[in-house]
Design brief:
Blueprint (H helix, E strand, L loop, with lengths): L1 E5 L4 H12 L4 E5 L7 H6 L7 E4 L4 E4 L1 H11 L10 H37 L5 H24 L10 H15 L9 H11 L5 H4 L18
Parallel strand pairs: 1-2
Antiparallel strand pairs: 1-3, 3-4
Helix pairs in contact: 1-3, 1-6, 4-5, 4-6, 5-7
Length: 223
């Protein structure tokens, strides 16, 4: 059995988990708070970041969400998520990198820092100006997703792909932390509403961080 080291609001783990669920790959969740920098975890991944996947029987350790996703794309034929022509696959990878890098840097990371890590790890109040900047950035990112969905059925093209999983992972964490204003983003809202109904994604929406509650509509696909 695979073991997946993660914490509930890690967007990169959410991307991996949704992929594994789409492909019906079994795994066991292992709670890891990377900000605690546990020695045994650092030994597995010196960068100290989640997710990490291990299979102790085979002696396999997989580090980095994109490397993990690529591994299961190569080894599990069911439900390809990096699909289509070479150009299509390049576009999927471009957009996964966009969400993993730009959306995370501008929106998800500051929300996690201010509304979760400061509270849990440091018992500090959030920086209101940094939160405002993150929420302002979220509007710009949702504008871009609206643009993509105005020309495509899914984020990267005509079929669901890893780009959708990466986008939903980042958005779901930002939404949990109250960083998303859905007003004026009908296309992205409709896409996300459909995504929230997927069997692979719904278990993630049911998870909670102790002491930090999401908005009341968070789990509801018809929000």
């Amino acid at each position: 059995m695979w073991q997946l080291y993660q914490f509930p609001l890690c967007p990169f783990t959410r991307k991996v988990r949704t992929l594994l669920n789409e492909k019906d790959v079994g795994y066991q969740l292992m709670r890891e708070n990377p900000w605690e920098r546990r020695d045994a975890f650092i030994d597995m991944n010196p960068a100290g970041q989640t997710p990490v996947m291990t299979d102790n029987e085979r002696g396999v350790v997989l580090v980095d969400s994109m490397a993990i996703c690529e591994y299961f794309e190569e080894t599990v034929e069911r439900v390809a998520m990096i699909n289509g022509t070479a150009a299509n696959r390049a576009e999927i990878r471009r957009l996964v990198a966009w969400f993993d890098t730009h959306f995370y840097r501008d929106v998800t990371q500051p929300l996690l820092d201010e509304r979760m890590i400061k509270r849990i790890a440091h018992r500090m109040a959030p920086d209101a100006s940094r939160l405002r900047e993150a929420m302002k950035s979220a509007v710009g990112h949702l504008d871009y997703i609206d643009f993509l969905l105005d020309h495509r059925k899914w984020i990267a093209g005509s079929t669901i792909s890893l780009a959708d999983l990466a986008a939903a992972a980042q958005i779901s964490v930002a939404d949990y932390l109250g960083g998303i204003d859905w007003a004026g983003h009908a296309l992205t809202k409709a896409w996300y509403s459909a995504f929230k109904s997927r069997r692979s994604f719904r278990p993630l929406l049911a998870e909670r961080i102790s002491g930090i509650e999401p908005p009341s509509y968070y789990e509801n696909p018809d929000f």
